[in-house]
Amino acid sequence: MTVPRLWSYVDHTQTTRPTVVFIDIGTNDLSVPTYDPLTLAQDIVDIARCFGDYESVRHVSISEMLRRNDNRRPNFNLARMETIMEMRWLVCEDPNIHTCHHRGLTQDWQQHLREDGVHLNQGGTCQYIMNV
Q: Is 79 within 8 Å of 37 (Cβ atoms)?
C-alpha cells in the first residue's frame, strides 16, 4: 500500500465506524528515491489525523517502517529513520495518535527477511503480528 492509495480508502473506512485504526504504509513510497523522508512523514501523519477526526475513532497507530535491503533507494534505512523520527515529532503531543515500534525486528533484522531482502519471512511475520 502506498500513501496515495490509502487516501482512496479513507472515506470508505469511515462507513465501517472503526474505533482503532492501524496504518502500515511508507516503505514502498520511500523506495522512490525522489520522495523526501520529511514529506513522507507529514503525508502519513496527515492521513492518521484524518482518520483521527472520525467520530468513532478513539486511537490511530502508525506502524514504524521496517528495515529492508532496498537497492532502489541509496541509504534506504537512513531515510527510513528520518521518516520515523519526523513522524514521532509530529504526533508527540497528540494523545490519540502514536507510532508503533516493532520489538524483535530491529536487531538482527536481516534474519527476518526473505531472500529478496524486502519482505518478511514466516518468522518475521509472526514477530510483526505479536507487536501489533
A: yes
